[in-house]
Design brief:
Blueprint: H1 3-10, H2 18-26, H3 35-48, E1 52-53, E2 58-59, H4 61-79, H5 88-101, H6 104-114
Antiparallel strand pairs: 1-2
Helix pairs in contact: 3-4
Length: about 130
């Protein structure tokens, strides 16, 4: 199996990114996790679980506990020191390419021209 196929398998969304999560939990820190998985978790918690318990109108603390669990997992990676060393050539390369890219707003407008946020056939009549 080639590297690309291994990465596709690792980052597959099946079983809620199960293989990726398992690999991450066995990794020796420090490591930088893919933040999108946590954002997905937080979105599902926010959108999928009611903030109040039906009929009682009490705060749903189970929802808050799940949110805190996800945030706690993110924080564990922030607590670990990252002994990174400066690589001048790499910094120079990134800086020169950022400057060559042009104005951020201009690039955003170009991006929307190439790939609009909403296709004509998807627009909802407002």
């Amino acid at each position: 199996m080639n590297v690309l196929e291994q990465l596709r398998r690792l980052m597959g969304s099946t079983k809620n990114f199960g293989e990726y999560r398992e690999t991450l939990h066995h990794a020796n820190p420090p490591c930088i996790p893919f933040f999108g998985v946590y954002l997905t978790d937080l979105t599902f918690i926010e959108d999928g679980i009611s903030s109040v318990i039906k009929k009682t109108k009490l705060i749903n603390f189970a929802k808050r506990a799940k949110t805190a669990e996800v945030i706690g997992e993110i924080q564990q990676y922030q607590k670990m020191p990252y002994p990174l060393k400066s690589v001048g050539d790499l910094q120079e390369y990134i800086l020169s390419n950022m400057q060559a890219a042009g104005d951020v707003h201009e690039m955003y407008d170009r991006s929307l021209a190439v790939e609009p946020r909403e296709r004509e056939d998807e627009k909802i009549t407002r």
